[in-house]
Q: What sequence folds into this?
């Protein structure tokens, strides 16, 4: 059985008003997620605002999280970028203590060809001592990893074990689900399409909204994984507006507004991100109160 069956959460990085890392808030977030019965945590994914963190801050967050989780649930480390040599160095030097895999995003901004994407991941995987989860998110990277490239990597690079698919393209989802090798997992990267993706054969999700509503969301995912999609529909539909609001003014500003309302952590973000507007905040508060 996959280690990544169910709900993973791409955890936010709580910040203080002065922009420093809020480690008490991070600890509270970790406990909130574990108490919300999610299956694993992704540390320093996109939702963590990792692009605005220094290497030293990343090291501190990786180590702090591993210490506080203390092997209660699996951890996945987000290590990705558009400089292959830099990522190869980062994964080869990464302190794997407490971590089960590395999530690595398709190189962004450079717009590599499919062959470039393949060679990038091959180099990263060969340097890593942990399994690699691919991450296809063209809305952020500016390039789509094709299903053919994903399948080529899955079939030829032994320690590439899964893909987080956030392309929103069901042609890609279908092709991967139909042709992936045994032991390679398809994971949803978009909260609102996770139910139909599980119906196609996805093993779960790496979620954003799970930061705020881990129990509601993870229970819905477990119901889907049992094959009872009709029973999962009410929860799925109840989460749609909250999910929309979490992204309408950017991620993670939206979900942090929800977390602030719940008293988990504050909603400070680092520039170039800004907090959500008062209008959006009021709507998020309304929805989070309904869900909780």
A:
């Amino acid at each position: 059985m996959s280690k990544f069956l169910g709900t993973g959460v791409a955890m936010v990085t709580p910040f203080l008003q002065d922009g420093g890392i809020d480690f008490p808030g991070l600890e509270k977030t970790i406990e909130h997620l574990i108490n919300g019965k999610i299956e694993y945590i992704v540390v320093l994914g996109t939702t963590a605002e990792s692009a605005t963190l220094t290497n030293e801050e990343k090291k501190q967050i990786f180590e702090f999280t591993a210490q506080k989780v203390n092997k209660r649930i699996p951890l996945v480390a987000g290590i990705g970028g558009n400089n292959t040599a830099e990522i190869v160095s980062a994964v080869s030097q990464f302190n794997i203590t407490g971590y089960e895999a590395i999530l690595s995003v398709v190189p962004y901004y450079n717009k590599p060809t499919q062959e470039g994407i393949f060679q990038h991941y091959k180099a990263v995987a060969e340097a890593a001592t942990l399994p690699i989860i691919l991450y296809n998110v063209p809305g952020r990277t500016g390039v789509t990893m094709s299903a053919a490239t994903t399948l080529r990597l899955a079939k030829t690079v032994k320690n590439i074990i899964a893909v987080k698919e956030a392309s929103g393209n069901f042609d890609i989802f279908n092709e991967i689900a139909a042709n992936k090798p045994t032991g390679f997992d398809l994971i949803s990267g978009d909260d609102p399409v996770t139910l139909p993706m599980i119906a196609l054969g996805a093993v779960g999700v790496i979620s954003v909204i799970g930061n705020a509503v881990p129990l509601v969301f993870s229970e819905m995912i477990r119901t889907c994984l049992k094959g009872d999609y009709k029973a999962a529909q009410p929860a799925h539909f109840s989460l749609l507006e909250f999910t929309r609001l979490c992204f309408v003014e950017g991620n993670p500003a939206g979900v942090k507004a929800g977390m602030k309302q719940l008293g988990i952590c504050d909603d400070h973000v680092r520039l170039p991100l800004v907090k959500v507007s008062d209008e959006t905040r009021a709507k998020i508060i309304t929805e989070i109160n309904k869900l909780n």
Summary: The mean pLDDT is 97. The beta strands are 6-10, 40-43, 75-78, 101-105, 132-136, 160-165, 185-188, 204-207. The two ends are 31 Å apart (CA to CA). The chain has twelve helices and eight strands.
